[in-house]
Amino acid sequence: MNDVDWAAMADMLELEGEAHSPYVRQALEELEHLTPRRILDIGSGPGVAACRLAAVFPQAEVTAVDGTPELLARAEQRADRLGVRLRTRLAEFPAGLADLGRADLVWSGQVVHHVGDQQGALDQLAGLLEPGGVLAVVEGGLPARWLPGDLGFGRPGLQARVDAVLADRFNRMRAELPGSVSVVEDWPGMLRAAGLTEARSRTFLVDHPAPLAEGPRRSVRQTLERQRAMLGELLDAEDVATLDRLLDPADPAGVDRRADLFLLAAKTVHFGSRPER
Fold first, then answer.
1. Which CB contacts under 8 angstroms, 24+ apart, belong to 172-178?
2. pLDDT, tens digit (0-9, with 9 covering 90-100), for 144-186
3. Is domain 7-273 classified as CATH 3.40.50.150?
4. What angle separates helix 10-19 from helix 69-82, to the nearest 10 degrees?
5. What tens digit of pLDDT does each residue of 225-261 get?
């Protein structure tokens, strides 16, 4: 995948996974009728979704697959804490998929967009399925919201401006990926092109109302810290100053102390099935 230091982002990824876990629970309710024997979580990161898969399908062999050893170590520690059975496997995406073997359920959360040829990546993921198996791919949805439009300082609409800069940065990242292929992101259509049937998309809500609990609040802080580091040269001076004030732990209007901080997001999961023989 593209050159990102995922190990350095371990805390943020785990906190974000926990904060966004309601959508995983909702998505897995769509799959409760399945009786998978083997499950792969491709690009598992620190294992939040993988551990949930292991809890929902305790009879299955669940394997968290990731290219970062430090994140797999986190997944193992998380499984031990939660008392679920989880295997881990070090493998790059998508280069290492061929050696993983087949599974009855393959989950991949926000990984495909890091590959230049997204359709090619979906083809490979679909190829991991046993006949009758299901692929669930998390991509798209809506940007998270944490703050009111008018913060009481700075220009109103900060998050909309940050979203626009992030979207432009994301598009440039995609264009610069090796083997980047432009594609209309009709995910059910792409799943059908990968040979899957019953392709559909469902969007699930993550809704943590104000006042925000400690875990989601820490997740918001870490996300804003990363955005400040990434976008400091791309936002105007007033917006940078606003972010700095939000991140000031001593400021009553900062994210650590605001009573009106919330977390609202929409996550889209795309499902497809491999036809029976």
1. 173/2, 174/113, 174/116, 176/2, 177/2, 177/114, 177/115, 177/116, 178/116
2. 999 999 999 999 999 999 999 999 999 999 999 999 999 999 9
3. yes
4. 40
5. 999 999 989 999 999 999 999 999 999 999 999 999 9
In the chain, % of residues over pLDDT 90? 96
Residues present in the chain in total: 277
Taking residue 20's Cβ as centre, other Cβ atoms within 10 Å add up to: 24
Residues near 57 by Cβ (< 8 Å), separated by ≥ 6? 34, 35, 36, 39, 105
150 vs 258: CA distance, rounded Å: 13
Using a cut of 0.90, tell me whether the model's pTM lies above it.
yes
pLDDT in tens, 100-135: 999 999 999 999 999 999 999 999 999 999 999 999
Rounded to whole angstroms, the Cα distance separating 269 from 277 reads 25
What does the DSSP 8-state code read for residue 246?
H
CB hemisphere CA count around 165 (13 angstroms): 17
Give the C-alpha separation, 258 to 217, whole Å: 10
Q: What residues have CB less than 8 Å from 14, skipping those under 6 apart?
A: 45, 46, 48, 74, 78
Asked whether 274 and 127 are in contact (CB, 8 A), the reply is no
Per-residue model confidence as pLDDT tens digits over 22-72: 999 999 999 999 999 999 999 999 999 999 999 999 999 999 999 999 999
Domain definitions of the chain by residue range: 7-273
Angle (CA) 191 193 196, round 5°? 50
